[in-house]
Specification:
The protein has 177 residues and is α/β, with parallel strands linked by helices. It has one domain (3-176): Dihydrofolate Reductase, subunit A (3-Layer(aba) Sandwich). The protein has helices at 24-27, 38-44, 52-59, 97-106, 117-125; strands at 3-11, 15-17, 47-51, 70-73, 90-93, 111-115, 129-137, 145-146, 157-164, 170-176. It has an eight-stranded mixed beta sheet with strand order 5-4-3-6-1-7-10-9, sandwiched between helices. Strands 2-8 form a two-stranded antiparallel sheet. Strand 3 (47-51), helix 3 and strand 4 form a beta-alpha-beta unit. The longest helix has 10 residues, at 97-106. The chain is globular, with a radius of gyration of 16 Å. The two termini are 17 Å apart.
């Protein structure tokens, strides 16, 4: 079975985005010259699975940031919502997290980058996340989309790495045990 992996920037108070999916708080951080390992992380995965909110946010970037295939989990979007320039690189599916993992395995993809607050929460609750690489950004925004929502049971994590950067950003890596 494929494994789910998370790499995400998160505010110190636990948010991955504002309620409107805005990342303005992240864009104003001065991390010039710091290598947070995103390119290396992307090189290590086979496919990106994200929700419709994250997809809409990434569509607003100046350029499409991914060379890897992207699968958007959505009950509301269709293939018609994919811009023509992303045809063949992005697809929309209305699958459950378990079914999308089976589909990824059928395609030969083993390492899945799971992206987006709600999507990460749904995969985590089902035991489909192997590890987290979190960049804790030194800002409090007070409200937004949480990375970790309500849980029905505890999820034990093992800290495997820490790294502090001059900008104040702190990288934490956890393995789900």
């Amino acid at each position: 079975m494929p494994t789910g992996h998370v790499m995400m920037a998160i505010t110190l108070d636990g948010y991955v985005a504002r309620k409107d999916h805005s990342l303005d708080w992240l864009m104003k951080q001065n991390t010039a010259g710091e290598n947070h390992g995103f390119a290396e992380f992307l090189d290590s995965i086979d496919v990106i699975v994200m929700g419709s909110g994250s997809f809409r946010t990434v569509l607003g970037f100046d350029t499409w940031p991914y060379k890897k295939p992207v699968v958007v989990l959505s009950q509301s979007l269709t293939g018609a919502d994919i811009p023509p320039e992303l045809t063949g690189r992005v697809e929309v599916v209305a699958l459950t997290p378990q079914d999308v993992m089976i589909e990824m395995e059928n395609r030969g993809w083993q390492r899945i980058y799971v992206d987006g607050g709600a999507i990460v929460q749904s995969f985590l609750k089902l035991g489909l996340i192997s590890d987290f690489k979190l960049a804790i950004v030194p800002i409090l925004i007070g409200d937004g989309i949480r990375l970790f929502g309500d849980l029905t049971s505890d999820i034990d994590l093992k800290l495997t790495h820490t790294n502090a950067f001059p900008s104040g950003l702190v990288e934490l890596r956890y393995k789900v045990v």
